[in-house]
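S1.2 Input.
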Amino acid sequence: QVQLVESGGGLVQAGGSLRLSCAASARTYGTYFMAWFRQAPGKEREFVATIARSGSSTVYAESVKGRFTISRDNAKNTVNLQMDTLKPEDTAVYYCAAGTFVRDYSSSSDYTYWGQGTQVTVSS
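S1.3 Output.
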C-alpha cells in the first residue's frame, strides 16, 4: 500500500511559477513509476508528466513540454513538478500517481495509487 500526499498548489498569475511536491509512504518507492495528472472542471483527467523509476527518463504532455519539469528523489520518497510560465489553461486539480507496471504512461488506469490532489489556479 502506498499513500501519496501532494502539496504546493495555490493561486498564481499567468507567467508565474509553482512547485508541486508529492510525498510517498512506500518502503519500495524506487520501484514505482511516478506521474502527475490534472483535471480541470468539466474535463477528464489528463496526463501531465511521468518519470521512470531511476529518474533517468521523463515524458511530458505536449501542452506542458518546455514549461514543466518533473523530478524525483528516491532517498526522500518524493516527486516534484516545477511549473513555469503558467497559463490560465493550466488551472486544474493536480494529482500525483504511482504505478508498478506501467505500459501506457499516459493512461490513468495504469497507475494504482493516487494522492488527494492539490488545486492550481492561474489567473489571467
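S1.4 Remarks. The mean pLDDT is 95.
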